[in-house]
C-alpha cells in the first residue's frame, strides 16, 4: 500500500548489496540458556560467509536501549544493518532505535513464541535465520505506537501485563517452555482480576467500558491464531483492539480455551475492532502498567495508540517458498 515513506524505502531496497556490515545486538538472557553456543554459532557462520560484523553482547535488559543506539550509530556511519538477536522484547528495544533512523533491520529470533519473526517466515533455528539474513530483501512493515513508543506484536494493560509478569516468575523456576506459559496463565486467572473502567475515544466516537484487560494487536499471526476477524484490517494502516467484558474466573478459563483453539472472535465476551488511532483514559489511574511486546513499563494516562508513519525496513527471506509461520 503506498505511504509517505515509499520513496526512501524503495531507495534502501536498491542499495542492499548483501555486503553491508552487520551490527548485532545480542541478548544473552533470551532463549533457553544456550547463549554461549548460539553466539559462537553466529560468529562462525558470519565468518564463514565472509561478512563483516560486530556483536554487542547484552547481559542485562536495561542495557538494551544503550547498545541498540550504539549499533544504530555504527550502522549509520558504515552504511550497515542493525540486527537484533533475542526474544520479542529484545526485538522491540532494538527496533525502537532503528525505526527513526530508517536503517535496515534484521532479526535472529530467540524467544518463546517469536510471533514477529514467524510472521515474516524467519526461523527460530539459528542456522536457518542466519541463512535468511545473509540472503535477504527488505520488506517495509507496519509498527504500532503507544504514546510514540513502538511495538511490533502487541501492547496491553490490565490482566495481560499481570499474566506476563507471572509468566516470567514461572519461567525462572521451570524454564522457557510454552507449557510453562500456559501453567502460569491458569494460576494467574484463578485470582480475581481487577476491573478497569476505560474511556475510549476513536474516530470521534466515545465509549465507556469495564474490562479486566485491553490488548492492542499489530501482528497478523497472533490475531489469526486466536481467531480475531479484524486481522485483515492490519493491511490498512490500522491496529486491532481486543477488550474482554467483565467475567469471572471460569469464564476467563473459557476465553483462554477459545483463544487456544482459534475461536476467540466467536465469543460474545470479547469485543474487537480496528482503528487508526485510539485514546484510552483509565478512570482513577494517573499511571498504569502496560506491556509492550512482552516487556512491562509504567505509562501515564491517557494512553494514545496509533500506527507509526514510518515503516520498519525489515530483512526477510528472499526465497518466499521457505516461509514457515508454524
Automatic annotation (TrEMBL):
Coiled coil: none annotated. Keywords: Kinase, Transferase. One of its GO terms (molecular function) is kinase activity. Residues 17-150 form the DAGKc domain. Pfam families: DAGK_cat. InterPro entries: ATP-NAD_kinase_N (IPR017438), Diacylglycerol_kinase_cat_dom (IPR001206), Lipid_Phosphate_FormReg (IPR050187), NAD/diacylglycerol_kinase_sf (IPR016064). PANTHER family: SPHINGOSINE KINASE, SPHINGOSINE KINASE RELATED PROTEIN. This is Diacylglycerol kinase.
